[in-house]
Protein: Aminotransferase class V domain-containing protein
Amino acid sequence: MISFYPGPSKIAPDLDKYMQEAYDEGILSCNHRSPSFMQLMEECLLTIRKKLDLPKNYEVFFVSSATECWEITAQSYHGKKFMHIYNGAFGEKWSKYNQVNDPITYEFPLHKNISLHQLSQLGAADADILCLTACETSNTTFIHPKTFQKIKKRFPNPLIFIDATSSMSGLRMDWKSGDLWYASVQKCFGLPSGLGVMICSPKALSKINKKDTHYNNLWSIYKNQQKRQTTHTPNILGIYLLNKVLQHRPDITTIDITLKKRMKETEKFFKKLGYEFLVPVSRLRSPTVLGIKTSKEKVQLLKKLAKEHQITLGNGYGAWKETSFRIANFPAHTDNDYDKIKDFFKKIEKV
Ligand SMILES: *Cc1c(COP(=O)(O)O)cnc(C)c1O
Structure:
């Protein structure tokens, strides 16, 4: 079975080998304040820095999931003036988790760029934190790195928080255009779920509410990370696997180019077959997840037939649950996987 579900998705190659290695090395029985764990954490942080090409002064933290980051940002920046800018289910959920801070929301249409003019009218310049979703996995829209740069330039004061769950480690990020980035590892990292990665600028660190007493408050996470430890007993296997998987990957620029090229070819392929995309404007489509719109009946039929061909298509999500399907284009997918999915669709459409 090849999973094109946008998370959990196909896992990275050789993961079975790394799991066996973790078992054999005994790291899974080590206490999370032991030198063995601290060494693993040190190594994994260095690998992330190197492979994702992070700015030197940005910090990396381990958390449990992207959803947890919604909670952490609400708690550890409590009392700040938040503005949530979104166009789909994940961005909206983030703002819902943040009701305690009574945020301003700006919902932009699926087929349009974010309007800086409208952001300005809503008071973005005076906000403390702007929250955005780099790839809205639910409806497969994409915020272009140039758009992030423009937002940063136009609104230099607020911190910019970015949910990069279905793009981190798949696409090259312009890290400096954001202050706090996060992702779960079951998307582009090609790992089993249960671990999240958060990346933080010095400016975001300087504004943490140090009085936050939740177990997963960002200030404790940071203080522990300085000792190469975590606030709680973390997902040690996940951290071990993350380190191994990233170590064996090419640099992020190469991955970025590969995924974008493959997405362009895939779009062309489906267009030729007469399929319609969820996102009409090509520039606003995520290079990591393709959303295709069709009838409810056809979605059901395609999913059933795909299964018979050992292919898992991703369900639609939220408003698009029944009338769309999604295809992940993550680093763990190979060109051979894409040949298989294309052969399947050629067969179905009899071309
Ligand atoms: C998958 C996803 C999430 C949720 O991830 P969890 O690991 O379930 O917390 C949040 N945001 C985006 C954009 C996602 O794609």
About this structure: The chain has a mean pLDDT of 97. The chain has two domains: 2-8+251-349, 15-247. The first strand starts at residue 2 and ends at 3. The first helix runs from residue 15 to 25.
